[in-house]
Amino acid sequence: MIVRSSAPTSKGRRTRAVLLQAGREAFEEHGYDAVRIDDVWARAGVSHGTFHTYFRSKEALFGDPYARVEAANRLYLRAWAANSRLVRMLEQAATADDPSQNGPSPPTRPLPQHVGQQEHGAAGGGGARRERTGAAEGRVVAVDEEVGLR
């Protein structure tokens, strides 16, 4: 049996992607043990032989789930690294005092670094009090350090 590890043509890449999607759907619906190769190729709309052109077995189709999760996490961390400053600004804007409700807002400053830090508004001698947990900021710092932003 000849099994290719990757599809060299655009049609082959599409066929492999269809098989992967059909396998994922079948695994999610029925569980790993209940899925048969026949279920996957029928769902994908290809022949039994076509399945074996791209995958040796159900195990090969399923792949290494830990590697897939790790790859997805790495993509997420790269996206976070590229956008973390914007996300922090959006969080800061979302938690800012509403001037129409509480009077003037305090000057803009970086988000708190400590979990449980409290922040007091400037209006009316103490004004509206709001609490920021800082938990999200703690995660931002950890991710930023991991990907080399801090």
UniProtKB/TrEMBL annotation:
SUPFAM superfamilies: Homeodomain-like. Transmembrane segments: none annotated. PROSITE patterns: HTH_TETR_2. Keywords: DNA-binding, Transcription, Transcription regulation. Residues 91-150 are annotated as: Disordered. Residues 13-73 form the HTH tetR-type domain. Residues 36-55 bind DNA. It comes from the Bacteria. This is TetR/AcrR family transcriptional regulator. It comes from Nonomuraea purpurea. The lineage of its organism: Bacteria, Bacillati, Actinomycetota, Actinomycetes, Streptosporangiales.
